[in-house]
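WARN  no MSA supplied for this record, continuing single-sequence
INFO  ligand: pantoate
INFO  echoing inputs
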Amino acid sequence: MGSSLPRVVRTRAELRAALAAAPRPVGLVPTMGALHEGHASLIRRAASQNETVVVTIFVNPLQFNEKSDFEKYPRDEAADLRLAGAAGASLVWIPTVEDVYPAGFQTSVRVSGLTEPLEGAARPGHFEGVTTIVAILLGLAGAERAYFGQKDAQQLLVVRRMAGDLGIGTEIVACPIVREPDGLALSSRNVRLTPEQRAAAPVLRRALLAARARFESGERDGDLLRGAMSELLAVEPLAAPEYVSCADPGTLAELTTVGGPALLSMAVRFGAVRLIDNEPLP
Ligand code: PAF
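INFO  complex generated
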């Protein structure tokens, strides 16, 4: 792992040419930039398992259901390149919208079922945007492995389903959530929190841990576990919960009774900033 700046390519053709000459195996880390320690952990993991690590930086307009969220999404190419290089990236693809979706582009990739609850219900069209861009990235890179964070647990499930259904040979590798010392999951959106919202935001983690504690003391009723999260969130006046969930980790169907593994998850707004977090059970 070096700390020199990685090579930057911008067009589809440049990416293909760079990859044709690159040592295998190739690990792909798709991102929307505004890289933080969570992304660094994905890049480091990729560097530990592959000869070449390709990071893609593309704020994908298709997956934003709110125009203002897309416009306000933080962008800092120079800082991203420094972080990617220090974490072990060899190549960074930074395309324009026209490189990714050239004139005449008419394709969309949609996974049904898994994309309907939770983030899918709250953000219509979001997952279709994600699966369309990820299918393009997996197709262009032809990587042996691609790395995704567990923080976006539903995205991970949906991408796995898509890759399996379409027979894409890239192994989808899940990487653990990276947190601030106070428990807040790292997210590119955290920089948009006001100091007061930032101080309040660890309530997501506390709510997940409250439900985990109830589970560990024997509670198996899905409503009561969801209630434990809602109660904690209600104590924080700056937090506006969108959903809390205790679901089957394979199907994301809400559980009446937890009889095996489960996924606790939530989306909470702090003003205009929407944060998500999750905790697997047991
Ligand atoms: O998780 C993200 O940052 C994005 O959804 C991804 C996977 C890079 C696709 O744009």
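Residues 188-281 form a domain with the Pantoate--beta-alanine Ligase; Chain: A,domain 2 fold (CATH 3.30.1300.10).
INFO  checksum written, moving to next record
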